[in-house]
Design a protein that fits this description.
This protein has 213 residues and is an alpha+beta fold. It contains eleven helices and eight strands. The chain has two domains: 57 residues; 145 residues, 2-Layer Sandwich (Beta Polymerase, domain 2), CATH 3.30.460. Helix content is 51%, strand content 18%. The strands form three sheets. It has a three-stranded antiparallel sheet. Strand 7 and strand 8 form a beta hairpin. The chain is elongated.
Length: 213
């Protein structure tokens, strides 16, 4: 086999590896399989693959990425959890437009920092970090995001930073757009140590829901 035939075969094999990984592949994964940086970047230069975030590439003929900011954040910080305004937006219980990707990390972890998209990091400890995490698929990438109920408890905890008006709007949108689960809300309120703060608001929303029913 000539050198040109060998190069074409290697490129074809690398493209096959991309498809085996759902069309997305990290450079480090290709290197671990014995491919060279030159082979990888040659596909990029030929327009066969395109960068998603640092070190992550995808086949260029895939459908456009719908949530590039979330994909970039999830790939750079796979252990972080989408929280606060970003989680409210994910669950469609806010009219706020997140200007940063809000991510929670464990108390002793390094806060996530990223030039683009801009990231706001928060340290959560113990069960306040580990409880209420849902895993969702975002353009082929697994994203950790807090459930609507856990997110609302977090928002009450950080109400002085995000604004009480934002929190109360989110609670009302949750009541009207989701299944209202006061028990689950109070469970997370206790975990986040905001039960006394949340209880009067939840009782008022529960009475509104009962009257509607």
């Amino acid at each position: 086999m000539s050198d040109s035939d060998s190069a074409r075969s290697s490129r074809a094999q690398l493209q096959t590896l991309f498809r085996q990984h759902g069309g997305q592949l990290r450079l480090s994964e290709a290197l671990a399989r014995g491919y060279s940086r030159y082979q990888f970047y040659q596909l990029r230069d030929e327009g066969v693959i395109e960068p998603v975030s640092r070190g992550l590439y995808r086949l260029a003929d895939l459908p456009p990425i719908e949530n590039p900011d979330l994909v970039a954040a999830a790939t750079r910080f796979p252990s972080a959890v989408l929280c606060l305004i970003s989680a409210l937006d994910w669950h469609d219980i806010t009219t706020q437009i997140p200007h940063q990707v809000h991510l929670a990390v464990e108390r002793d972890a390094r806060l996530p920092v990223l030039d683009y998209p801009p990231v706001a990091g928060y340290r959560f400890s113990g069960r306040a970090f580990s409880e209420g995490i849902e895993q969702v698929d975002v353009d082929g990438i697994t994203l950790n995001v807090y459930s609507p109920e856990k997110t609302l408890a977090d928002c009450f905890k950080f109400r002085n930073r995000i604004g009480m008006d934002v929190v109360l709007e989110a609670l009302e949108l949750y009541r009207t757009r989701k299944t209202f689960r006061p028990g689950k809300l109070m469970e997370y309120a206790r975990i986040c140590r905001v039960a006394n703060v949340m209880a009067p608001y939840l009782e008022a929303k529960r009475e509104m829901t009962v009257r509607v029913l």
